[in-house]
From TrEMBL:
Coiled coil: none annotated. Residues 8-181 form the Exonuclease domain. Gene3D superfamilies: Ribonuclease H-like superfamily/Ribonuclease H (3.30.420.10). SMART domains: EXOIII. It comes from Sphingomonas gellani. One of its GO terms (biological process) is DNA metabolic process. This is Exodeoxyribonuclease X. It comes from the Bacteria. GO terms for molecular function: exonuclease activity; nucleic acid binding. InterPro entries: Ribonucl_H, RNaseH-like_sf, RNaseH_sf.
Length: 253
């Protein structure tokens, strides 16, 4: 019998000229693999990598101030279409791709370029698994969680493609070991389930603490994550589901 296919998930991070194609282009892609070991535990695999990409347009100063990539660094780099497929859909085939706030990466990494791969969003999964975190950015989770084995300097500078992918891979590794692939994919297909209210008079409160009238106002919010969380909390109050993890009393029931 042929050997089983390796179970590998590739973490992706992009630096771009702006928030959405086709008005904006990719400047840099970084990646780091996470693989399932024979002992059933997920670990970082290999050295990862980074490539510059020619975005086909000048880099706006407002985005340069975030990632500090210069036009001259990318002017002779290959085009995105010539880079993307070999990074996003390598051999052997990855179980899934992953990114922190994966909705952003998916705008640039079309199914045609990624081979139709499924995506895990480590941000959405962090909301579910670590609701006590003070915030859920890649870097806040890094310093709040202090993942085992994360080499501080290798994860710097922040807002560059490989260091960010490297940090995200540590979050993904721990999420996989806690919840498994199928659960992370399921959560990633849904909007984000927010542990706390983000705006208004109830800002900072657990959703279970706010009044019915306040909750009703969030059911028509423009933000899909807010609407989804409000709908989930309403379902809990009507006898189904919960926001975040159940407390000890709910587990007993």
């Amino acid at each position: 019998m042929p050997p089983p296919k390796p179970q590998i998930i590739r973490v992706i991070d992009l630096e771009t000229t702006g928030n959405a194609p086709p008005a904006h282009g990719v400047l840099e892609i970084g990646w780091q693999d996470v693989a399932l070991g024979a002992d059933g535990l997920w670990r970082l695999e290999g050295e990862g990598g980074q490539l510059f990409v020619n975005p086909g347009r000048p880099i706006p100063p407002i985005t340069q101030a975030v990632h500090h990539i210069l036009d001259e660094w990318v002017q002779d780099a290959p085009w995105w279409q010539d880079v993307a497929r070999r990074v996003l859909d390598p051999y052997p085939r990855r179980v899934a791709l992953a990114a922190h706030r994966a909705d952003f990466e998916q705008q640039f990494c079309s199914p045609n370029l990624s081979g139709g791969a499924e995506w895990i969003c480590t941000w959405k999964c962090a909301l579910r698994l670590w609701p006590q975190s003070p915030a859920f950015s890649n870097q806040v989770l890094r310093y709040w969680r202090k993942p085992e084995g994360l080499e501080h300097e290798r994860g710097l500078p922040a807002h560059r493609a490989f260091p960010d992918a490297y940090v995200t891979a540590h979050h993904l590794r721990d999420q996989l070991n806690e919840a498994g692939v199928a659960q992370l994919l399921e959560w990633s297909r849904q909007p984000g389930l927010l542990p706390r209210v983000r705006t208004g008079l109830d800002r900072g409160k657990d959703w279970r603490e706010i009044s019915d009238d306040s909750l009703a106002n969030f059911l028509t919010d423009r933000d899909a994550d807010v609407r989804f969380t409000a709908e989930t909390e309403r379902a809990r109050r009507r006898g189904g589901g919960f926001v975040g993890r159940p407390d000890a009393q709910e587990l007993l029931l």
